[in-house]
Design goal:
Elements lengths: L7 E5 L4 H12 L3 E6 L5 H4 L1 H5 L7 E4 L5 H11 L3 E4 L6 H6 L1 H22 L4 E7 L22 H20 L3 E6 L2 E2 L8 H13 L6 E3 L5 E2 L2 E2 H11 L7 E4 L5 E2 H11 L8 E3 L17 H7 L7 H19 L9
Parallel strand pairs: 1-2, 1-4, 2-3, 4-5, 5-6, 6-11, 7-10, 8-13
Antiparallel strand pairs: 9-12
Helix pairs in contact: 1-9, 4-6, 6-7, 8-10, 8-12, 10-12
């Protein structure tokens, strides 16, 4: 492991769940943290996760776009980062079928743009690529490790697979310290409501407070390996502290059905999910990924990393956070609370 000293880190996707937690982690280690943000007319909305963690004024944000190589090169030239974490992507699987070209441009080609900018303007920087368990798709092994063959089942997963392999290619072609984390599902109170865990915890909170009557769901028998984003960003940092770059599966090793995840959320607030969950066929994916379960043994052996926060603890935290948000922002009628 490298000795700790003041370093500069650049994070794409810093206003997302992982970017915000990673920024918090790096700030705590004394880094100067810069974040690339896509220009938006709703900038105050995009940085809400940084505000939620109380670090909005501690990071340095700069306008940029993963599809603009010249812009990325200027950013690298100006900042000269020691570490670059590429977390930016079109990251919602469902939307990738509606926006396959955008997903390819940002989630796939965007990785090449960042790598090229690093190679040319910051060649000594260490690079992290956010790969995804969705790349395993139609699983070829019951438990997935770094050597499990990939079989992506969505435009998002295909784009992530390109990003993963181009990172390997740049590492092998140019000798870059470039590592990929094949992260399995990881959640938190900062997760967007378009993702299934947050959809469930937000709905559970709304139903409890009398603001919603049902929870429409798709395939609740799908199984996922869920961990907490706070744990997973630690693995990202650990990868870039190694002498040699490599690829690592980051997972808990435990798989749980969406059905059981819903039960955990509703049990936490004393409700029976059977009274509120409604299956909506329109929410099923065109090509489903039925089971994902990661083998984190390599990360444990080489990085000394393992998940600390359990699924039950994470879901309880998310439900409580959604209850608190809603009580602050909504006009609650006590007579309608369950």
């Amino acid at each position: 492991m490298r000795a700790r000293k003041l370093r500069k880190a650049l994070i794409t996707g810093i206003t997302g769940q992982d970017g915000a937690y990673l920024a918090q982690l790096l700030l705590g280690k004394g880094y100067e943290v810069h974040g690339v943000v896509r220009r938006s007319s709703h900038a105050e909305v995009s940085s809400h996760r940084l505000r939620w963690l109380g670090i909005e004024n501690d990071v340095k944000l700069i306008d940029g776009n993963l599809n603009d190589l010249s812009c990325l090169m200027r950013i690298m030239q100006t900042i000269k980062p020691d570490e670059v974490y590429n977390l930016g992507a079109q990251s919602f699987v469902h939307s990738s079928w509606q926006q396959p070209l955008l997903t390819a441009q940002v989630t796939a080609v965007g990785v090449t743009n960042v790598l090229e900018a690093v190679r040319i303007e910051a060649p000594t920087a260490r690079f992290y690529q956010a790969s995804s368990s969705e790349m395993f798709g139609l699983i070829q092994e019951t438990i997935q490790s770094e050597t499990t063959p990939f079989y992506p089942r969505s435009p998002y997963a295909v784009a992530k697979l390109y990003g993963h392999w181009i990172t390997v290619n740049y590492r092998e072609s140019f000798g870059m310290h470039a590592s990929s984390g094949i992260l399995f599902n990881h959640e938190s109170p900062l997760r967007g409501k378009e993702f299934v865990t947050r959809k469930v915890t937000d709905a559970a909170a709304r139903i409890k407070l009398g603001l919603q009557d049902e929870l429409p769901m798709g395939n609740i028998d799908a199984k996922r390996d869920w961990g907490h984003a706070k744990d997973y960003v630690k693995a990202m940092w650990m990868m870039l502290q190694q002498d040699k770059p490599d690829d690592y599966v980051v997972a808990t090793g435990r798989t749980t059905t969406v059905r059981d995840m819903i039960r955990i959320a509703f049990d936490h607030i004393g409700l029976n999910p059977a009274d509120f969950v409604r299956i909506d066929a329109s929410l099923f994916r065109p090509a489903e990924v039925e089971v994902l379960q990661g083998n984190p043994e390599k990360a444990k052996a080489k990085l000394g990393w393992e998940a600390k926060i359990t699924l039950e603890e994470m879901i309880a935290e998310m439900v409580d956070a959604d209850l608190a948000r809603l009580r602050r922002s909504e006009d609650i009628d006590p007579s309608k609370m369950r």
